[in-house]
Give the backbone structure.
Amino acid sequence: MNEILNNKKVVFFDLGYTVLYPASGDWMFTAKFNSFASKRLEAINPERISDAVKECTGKLMKHHLCLDEKTELEEFTHFYTDLSAALELGLTHEQIGEIASDHTFNTANYVPYPDAVKVLSALKSRFALGVISDTWPSIVNKLRAHDLLDFFSFTTFSFSFGICKPEPEMFLDALSKCGCEAKDTVFIDDNPANIAASAKFGITPVLIAATPGTDHDVPFLKIHSLSELL
């Protein structure tokens, strides 16, 4: 095992770009979305697309307190409606409904990293494993569909609070559920701000740079795949 895990009892994981990645390469621009919108997007300035996604995501996250998939579906229907209007994509009500439903219920939109099951299985034999993730209610079924859910003994999901990392409540909730002191825990995430926040509580931070664009310089341990934990 990696020496950073010596004398630890709990390993917390982020999910996106840590355990799972989007099959299409983008969490919001799923294959279903692209099937309706990709040709129109080709004619739009990338900066305009980025600004529209940022604006619409901001509106979406104002309604992040979301306790079931039905509500999640409603929120993503609003998101894709707003995005279509902002970018003048001309998506129909039926197309938006298909996209939002696919985003919520299609477990194939998320793909585990090739070493995820092997690593989690190995770690589960020695540590309690948990999740601290910014995500939506459908994540439970997505983890189950990929045979990942049972690896985790406790979960802290942002949708339960309506807030996201690096808000303190996320880390305090995780620590309260695991029943261990912070010094006995490790947190693995692809976002430097999140691992820096976890360190303030005494959690040992690890940056994972498994995806292009996440290989940041940080004053913490950095790994490039989950396998480096073994």
Observations:
- The CA atoms of residues 80 and 156 lie 26 Å apart.
- The chain has eight helices and eight strands.
- Residues 31-105 form one domain.
- The helical segments are 31-41, 46-61, 69-87, 93-105, 116-124, 139-145, 168-178, 192-200.
